[in-house]
Fold these 2 entries.
Entry 1:
Amino acid sequence: MTLQKSPSFSLNSPVTVLAGVGPKKAQALGRIGVFTLEDIFYLMPRRYEDRRTPKPLSLLQPGNVECAVAYVSEIKERNGRTEAIIADNSGTARVVWFTDKIAAFVRKGMRLALYGPVSDYDYYIEPQFSHPEFEILYRQSQQPKLIGKIFPVYPGTADLTQRTIKKFVDTAIEKYADNCLTEFIPKKIMKRYTLIPLKDAVLQIHSPDNEETFIAARNRLAFDEFFLLQAGVKMRRRAFSGKYKAHPIKAGETFDRLIENLPFKMTDAQKAAIHEILCDMESLYPMNRLLQGDVGSGKTLVAVSAMAAAFDSGVQSAFMAPTEILAQQHYLSLSKLLEPLGINITLLTGSLKPSERKKILNGLADGSINIAVGTHALFSEGVSFKELALAIVDEQHRFGVLQRSGLTSKAEAPHVLAMTATPIPRTMVMSVYGDLEVSVLNEMPKGRKKIKTVAMKAKNFNDICRKIREEVSKGHQVYWVCPVIDESERGLVSVTSAYDVLTAAMPELRTAIIHGQLPIDEKANIMQDFSAGNIDVLVSTVVIEVGVDVPNATMIVIQDAGQFGLAQLHQLRGRVGRGKAQSYCVLLANDGITEAGAERISTMVNISDGFELAEHDLIQRGPGEICGTHQHGVTDFRVADLVRDVKILEAARKEAQTLLNDDPDLSGEPELKGEILRRLGEVLELAATS
Ligand code: ADP
Ligand code: MG
């Protein structure tokens, strides 16, 4: 007798271990993303069919998909179809199958279970099943398989019927669930949230008893996804911060002088954020903080204070902006504030002459330059700092998660402050940036007026010009934004043609063009001219989208506004309303505007709060696109939904935090640790090393 070793299966075993799955079927399953047993356990039905209660035939509703049990009282073939009349105690109904094959085995007198769409059969005014699924019930006591339950409907593929997929799922659950689906959530957490066991959850997802059990199952699996991600991110953070030490930063005299000399009073939110940042930076562990604040809430000042504190502590800071224009502009405004305090600040972008670049690199290496402002060129090859202790990343959402970690691995371990003006919804921060602390500027500087936003048509051009003249006559300035540089693109209005039209209509105004293809020096000059008030109307592409700060600009006109996303429109609108005067945002719709575009415009007119808009955006576009993390897979949840499952996310985050505080290595929870590494190992490693 040979000893048969029981084969070991795991979630990672290929689907071919299932009876009936050969290379062909495996390929077909692959097309719906199913490669392993795990994939099949977690294959989420697209929807469900409620086939629980058969209806008496007299109650069948045309227009519904219904199920019934009835006897065949007549059946015949006609014109390649099979037609039948069925009956139960309550009445009769017609059935038509679009094939002549049925009558060969369905006979008069047989009892059938049926499931399918019901329509009106015009002539007889009798309900009719159209091409229903059916099952012959040979014995009186026979329980139908086709109905009596809630049925899953899986993502479709041409080469696999629903029945086949369901059979594979059922086999997988029957044969392998016990071995593969071991519980990993700690008991006390399961109890606290009355989470159902993993195996039950998987079973109920594929074959729910009722709505309640389905929701319990979905909640359990959503909890798993959030919880594992949160715990994983926290583990990584711990491993990371144990490896690297930061330089502690303490505010001193320069910081105090900066604050004393401010031309305005800080908002309470700014004070609180600065306080939180200073507390973080006193530590030997690198700060990892996200500063969220709507456009115009004054994030730059918070960053400036942190950099002043770094200077006080004798270390360098880097301030990274997403575009050259923005880097330029930050450089100008930062130097105004910081140079009088004796701080040496420089601008490092990709378009420097080699000799200039060399000089700057030397200054960074020998420590004579205290602050470098720049684009991602700051962290390119060949740039090294003497002692970089603080890195600030403006407009974080433009960089994506990977670049943030790239920044951290380049330098030793600076404190990192990421700032975002397109507010990332709280739910998103918690899931994607689970390892970040968050400060929020939820308050605007005093005296700001709400921007008036209106939607207009291109034919209102004269009215708009009148309004522009009015603003300019008050000494204010105007942005005119177009989606494209060149006319040829998609029939949209370009900066050049808008410029021609505007200068022809208002020759008395000082109008200029700016776009991304101009040489950096020219862009810088134009922006400086605009800041200085020497330009009345600036015709621009979205190069001014992010961060540009000219408080004297009070009107922005956005041409072909339907072309832009909500986040972008909000960013653009945020270029005005930065001073005390009333500001205006005009959204121009072109004729060929899409329905979605029109909806975005009306959303913009109705909502001014950036956080509220961001939630809208999240619903409309999905999380990955907002964070630029699509390829990253971090937000690719199978079950969890960032909008629907906020409460679960919060609970999961809290539990992960507590658990890891008590047991940082998860040595008391080997199953949990195993599951985190199995599910997220790759993603977490990627994020840590890239
Ligand atoms: P954002 O948060 O969009 O980056 P900025 O930091 O560019 O905003 O600030 C917008 C404008 O508000 C700037 O002109 C800045 O000088 C000004 N500002 C910042 N804080 C205050 C304040 N507490 N009171 C008045 N104005 C302020
Ligand atoms: Mg800013």
Note: The first strand starts at residue 47 and ends at 51.
Entry 2:
Amino acid sequence: MRLRNITGSREIIRESIFVIHEPEKHKGNWQDIFGNTNPIHIEIGMGKGRFLMDMARMYPSVNYIGIEKYSSVLLRAIQKMEREEQPLCNVRFIRMDAEMIGNVFGMEEVDRIYLNFSDPWPKDRHAKRRLPSREFLARYDKVLKKEGLLEFKTDNKDLFLFALEELEPAGWKAEKISYDLHHDKDLMKDNVMTEYEEKFSSIGNPIYKYVIRR
Ligand code: SAM
């Protein structure tokens, strides 16, 4: 998702209380930001933030951090946060490329990682940019707790099959796999829809999901 540039978006982001600026400075100390010792869950490529905010409302004793690469998209998430009647104290945003995740979180600082409808980067030469690639799994390996889980959802079958093939070489294993999430009673029990999930499932696309650990 890349929205057209919106005049003033960088200024709004700079002034937003929901955005953590210079996130590298908080490496190893993210609990201080929230003022508690609750677990930290991150969504990489959060888009407009619907999933993250719905989760934060449902699980107030989890701290949620949304990572988004583009200012124009992050701006939408900030605007959504500003419309909340009850402020969500357990949500923060970071604008950055997920490649930098190891500079921003300490070893095993994160309890769970969500990848939702990640960009597919269909050309082979761009495989390393795919968020479930072995290169990214190696980055997640450093910041995720040893017993931590990573959850990935997509409607893109090729990306999902690629993601499954990456697991073994990267040293991860699948705990749950679904090729049709919306007809999987077990996984649907606590499913929270993302913006893309709503859009693609409404036109009949099956949704794929895995939950993985090392
Ligand atoms: N997760 C949302 C959902 O399911 O509705 C948005 C999905 S959208 C297809 C993918 C998002 O990931 C975009 O907003 C894009 O800018 C962001 N993104 C892609 N690559 C990224 C990266 N390397 N670091 C951070 N964000 C990234």
Note: The mean pLDDT is 96.
